[in-house]
Amino acid sequence: MKLDSASLVSQLESLLGKDLVRSDATALESYSHDATPIFQGLPEVIVAPKTTADVVKIVNFARQTSTPIIARGAGSNLCAATVPLSGGIVMSMANMKKILEVSKSEMLAVVQPGVTNLDLDQLVEKDGMRFIPDPGSRSVSTIGGNVATSAGGLRGLKYGTTKNYILGLEAVLGTGELIRTGGRLVKDVAGYDVTRLLVGSEGTLAVFTEITVALAPRPSTSKYGVAYFDDLSCAAIAVEKIISHGIMPSTLEFLDNTCITAVEEFAHLGLDTGAGALLLFGDDGEGESVSLTVNKMAEIVKESAGGRGVSLAQDVAAAEALLYARRCSLPALARLGSLSILEDIAVPRPKMAHVVTAIEGIGAKHNLRIGTFGHAGDGNLHPTIVVDKDNAAEVKRAELALSEIFHLAIAAGGTITGEHGVGSAKLPYLQELLGETNMQLQRSIKHVFDPDNILNPNRLGS
Fold first, then answer.
1. CA distance 205 to 196
2. Taking the CB of residue 22, how many other CB atoms lie within 10 A of it?
3. Closest to 33 (Cα-Cα) out of 94, 90, 91, 75
4. 220/322 Cα distance (integer angstroms)
5. Which residues contact 142 (CB under 8 A, 6 or more apart)?
6. Which CATH number fits domain 5-92: 3.30.465.60, 3.40.140.10, 3.30.465.10, 3.30.43.10?
7. What are the residue ranges spanned by the domains of the chain?
8. Is the pTM of this model over 0.85?
9. Which 3 state secondary structure label does DSSP give 324?
10. Quick check: 1 pLDDT over 70?
11. How much is the pLDDT for 343?
12. Residue 218 pLDDT > 70, yes or no?
């Protein structure tokens, strides 16, 4: 039985207590959007469970009342995956932020979904360990949200992404049933890999209540360098040469001229604003090995066509400045206009030079400013369009340009999202990428986990 908003709020207050329920205008507005521009939808109520039992109660209530429910972490995702376009309940996991266990001997931690990447990483640092996944929003993004979108980051080429570090999950299905998948073991092939299925499911199959993550040894040394090129295509070719030499660095990132200039104006790091592209490269591990790897990469980029100069960071402060140049690309670009639309495609490395050149052409065709940065080593590109949000014609041109960019990625044998997720932003392109048979399979999976379609409806599998 579908409830009106007032009844929905009052019944949830009776079920959970008033301290876990909010329906004031300020709260509803705060949870009406995530970090994705343009998309917005007003929820009817916000709930903030403290325990797994609370989550089970909320999901069962949502099922009984046919109420849509969206589980949400920090709302830092960039694909409109947590915008309540269907109204209903937003379930904030902010109260479930305990680090339940850290086991150095097993190199793992057990956490609730509201724990941030940075909190966990800083906690395990004293034991010589680290949590590998490092999205740009790592200081605020939650591990539950990372699992939901299978978030990536700067270390993806060498170490993998979130999906490579999830050992087990406790989760509540759309039926209200509680399941545990995986466990504490690196090796476990009993039955279907439901853990891996849930990673990246964007809250459409289950709500995570406990996450067991693998940790890694903290490297003793890291070293970074920066190279400048005439254009992004030359930088992409240099990346291909580095990988072809059998080098798998921990960091291989790039910025185009638009990004370089924006970052320099924002952070004043002494970047070469006359360059068409910047390539940030680095490695971590044992001292001598790291030096050999980074020095070899420096030699390769020096010999590459279109190179304008290479330098190595001489100390930790200089290395941190280089990493900051990459991490602050989005806020730097955001200062150039009232609306910045950051996107996320990935293409095979051999196609990267062609694709970045084509993106520049798309920007020129639509008379748009597009800054492209990203993870060069794994072909993950972040074309970012900066426009005036009050200029309807310009916003429309941006939408047309993004559509062309998604089609370009698919045609190149790539994907419409490498690490941000599909959400609502890229859902219109999912069938073109996957095909009808695969889409139908996904709908069937969704029905098994969430037969009443209450978990984040009208997205993946719906």
1. 12
2. 21
3. 75
4. 19
5. 73, 74, 93, 97, 113, 114, 115, 116, 117
6. 3.30.43.10
7. 5-92, 99-217, 241-411
8. yes
9. helix
10. no
11. 94
12. yes
